[in-house]
Amino acid sequence: MSDLISTISASRRQFLQASSAAVAAQVALSSSAFAAGSDEIKVGLVGCGGRGTGAAVQALKADPGVRLVSMGDAFADRLEGSLTALKNPANGVNEKVHVESDKKFVGFDAYQKVIDSGVDVVLLTAPPCFRPKHLAAAIAAGKHVFAEKPIAVDAAGVRSVIETCAKAKEKNLSVVSGLCWRY
Question: Which of 11, 26, 35, 140 has the fewest CB atoms within 10 Å around its CB?
């Protein structure tokens, strides 16, 4: 009963953080995202700004087997700033960050290099105008995806995402989008 009371008195933000972490863990567990013969889930981050860093922290807290192994951003200072923040023990995920120097990618093609780096799941948190293209590339490569909102910024992007999600379903790949409400 005390658990129920503490759940009821939790803030909406706490509820959303806990539920999104649980959903991310469930997607990873139910979608065969594990590396062959291992309980490790290799995650790549595309877009290393504040939201990307926050999404990486949430993903790393979702399951004991999750490891961040690859990062990409258009700008080196963003990538290095994010990596420094993720390695900070205050985040509670620093021991799950295993990004070697050859798995740090900078430039407008960094997303493809992250996708091709041997990850199981890709976190797409770069600016939303790039998201349809990044999502299509990840699904084409057979990767599970968490895509931050908004998923697209125009009608052509929305149509692209709809087509890509249909392909993901055919391939039995998970696509999860970050939402503020009613997830």
Answer: 11
- 89 contacts: CB under 8 Å, gap ≥ 6: none
β-partners of residue 28 are none
**Up-side HSE of residue 115: CA atoms within 13 Å toward CB?**
19
Indicate the SS3 state at residue 81.
helix
What tokens does 85 get?
A: 């923040």
Q: Which of 96, 12, 105, 31 is nearest to 57 (CA)?
A: 96
Beta strands across the sheet bearing 104-106 = 104-106, 66-73, 41-46, 121-124, 144-147, 175-177
Tokens 């055919």, residue located: 170
Task: Return the bridge partners of 123, or none.
Answer: 45, 146
Average pLDDT over residues 112-117: 98
For residue 160, the surrounding DSSP H or E stretch is helix 155-170
Residue 121's beta-bridge partner residues? Answer: 43, 144
The predicted pLDDT at position 178 comes to: 83
Place of tokens 């960094």: 110
**Phi/psi of residue 174, each to 5°?**
-90, 135
Band (74; pLDDT cuts 50, 70, 90): very high
Q: Which two tokens stand for residue 58?
A: 């949430």
Query: What pLDDT score does 24 carry?
Result: 47
